[in-house]
Amino acid sequence: MMDAKQIELVQRTFEQRVRPIAQEAGEMMYLRLFEMDPSLKPLFKGDIKLQSEMLMTAIGLAIHNLDNPEQVKIETQQLGKRHAGYGVQSSYFNIFGAALMWALEQVIGADFTPEVKEAWGEAYALLAKAMRENTHN
């Protein structure tokens, strides 16, 4: 469970550092993901810029609602259900999380302190847990 300080850190760093370059941040994450595991690339059909935009919109919505975990869970479970339909498996969440954390570190830069990293890790764990409930093992 995230505490109020962690929520504030994630929301602030998202608004200040990630949102202004959201599409670029998403593209960085996907490039890193495909570098880490090229076998995942076929799951992402279509324009990577559009995928990046959709990813960051979904993350932004979840981040905005972090102080309402039940709402985040409902929205994220629906997202997980859609992704299950695309063939996403539960095991993919670890590598996706690693690629996301790498991209966040690049985008947030010097402000990606251990405390901020831990807060983002908690936020991702919350989102991934809800999404996993609807994916294949």
Overview of the structural elements:
α5 runs antiparallel to α6 (114-132). This protein has one domain (4-132): Globins (Globin-like, Orthogonal Bundle). The protein has helices at 4-18, 22-36, 48-64, 69-85, 92-108, 114-132. The two termini are 24 Å apart. The protein is 73% helix and 0% strand. With 137 residues, it is mainly α. The longest helix is centred in the last third of the chain and has 19 residues, at 114-132.
By CATH, the topology is Globin-like
What is the helix fraction of residues, given as a range? over 70%
One letter per element, helices H and strands E, the order comes to HHHHHH
> What's the number of structural domains?
1
Distance between the termini: 24 Å
- Strand count: 0
| CATH structural class | Mainly Alpha
Q: Helix segment count?
A: 6
Largest sheet: none
Descriptive terms for the model:
about 0% strand, about 75% helix, about 140 residues, globular, mainly alpha, Globin-like, single chain
Q: How is the topology of this model organized?
A:
Blueprint: H1 4-18, H2 22-36, H3 48-64, H4 69-85, H5 92-108, H6 114-132
Give a summary of the structure in a few sentences:
The protein is mainly alpha-helical.
